[in-house]
Task: structure prediction
Amino acid sequence: MNMEEKKCLAAVLYGPEDMRIEQVDVPSIGPNDALIQMKACALCGSDLSGYLGKHGRVVYPRILGHEFSGVIAKLGQKVTGFSEGQRVCCDPDIRCGTCDLCRQGRGNLCVTLKTQGFDIDGAYSEYVKVHQDNLYPIPDNTSFEDTSLVQTLGVAYSAVKRRGEVLFNDYLLIIGCGPIGLSSLLFAKAAGAYVIITDTVGYRLEMAKELGADEVINAENADIVESVLRLTQGKGVDKVIEAVGGQQDVTLRQCTQAVKRGGLVVLVGTFAGNKATLRATEFKDRELEMRGSRAYIGWYAFPEIIQLIASGKINVSRMITHRLKLAEAEKGLKLMQDKQEKVMKVVISP
Ligand SMILES: [Zn+2]
Ligand SMILES: [Zn+2]
Result:
C-alpha cells in the first residue's frame, strides 16, 4: 500500500475560529522521517491561542497539534532503530542541532526552533510526519493518552528539575493549577518536596489536592503571601514556580514576596504583552534569583518522563478530563476557552 497517495482525516484551521474537518493528503516522508498514525493528541492552551488567531507563529491554513503519540505506520529508508508498528511518543520541537546553543545541549533555546503544530502541520490528523530524532518509544504498559501528555509534562519537568533544581526537602510554591502547574506538582512531589499550590478556580485546586499537594490556597479568598508565610514560620518558601502569566503581574509580586531571602523564582508562565513589572529592589535587597524556563530539551525530558509514567510514579491520567474524537477537536478547544465541565486536559483520538 502506498500511503502517500492516500487521504486521511484532519482538522484544518483556515483562520481564527474557522476549523474544518476534511480529507487531506497523507504526508509524504523523507528518508529520515517516520509516518506516524496518531493515536492520541492532547489539546493545549497554546492551540487555543492559535485557534483564536492569537498565536504569533501560526500561518493559515494550519493543522494544529503538538502533544501526541501513536504508532509508526511507515519508516523512511534511512531510519534505524525503529520498526513499523512500534508505539512512540513524539517531540514536536524541531531544533537545528548545529547552532551554539544546540551544541551546548540547550536545544530549547535553538535560534531557529520550530514547533510542529504551529510552524508546520501537526497532529490534529490521522497521520503525521515526524523526524526520527523526535521519536521516543513507549512501553506497552503505558497508554497513548497518558503519553500524549509527555510534551506538556516536559515543560514542567524542565521548570522543576533543570531550572528549579527542586530537592526532597524544599518548600516549593507553585502559582497556578493549569496543566503546567499541576504537572510541576507531580514532579515536585515525586522529588519529595513540600508543595503549596495556588489558583483562583476551585475545581483545579481540588484536583491539585488529589494529585498530592500538601497545601492548596484559593487566591480568590486568601492572601497568598500571608498564607505562605504562615505555613513557613515567617520565612517564605525556598523556591517558587510561576505557571500563570497572562495579562497581569499580581503573581509576579507574589513570587518575590512569598520566597525566602536568597530564594529562587522560576518563571514558566508567559506574560503576554510583556507588561508585567517586578520590584527590582526586592531582588537586590533579598538576593533573590530568577530563572526563565522555556520549553524542554527533548532527549533530557522525554525518556525520563516516559519512565516515570510507566513506573506509576506520576499519575497523569487524572489530569485528562475529556476524551474526544479528532472530528470534535473544535469542541475541545471551546471547552477549554470557557473552562467548562471542570476541564483540564482534553485528548483527541482518531
Ligand atoms: Zn502545549
Ligand atoms: Zn539550534
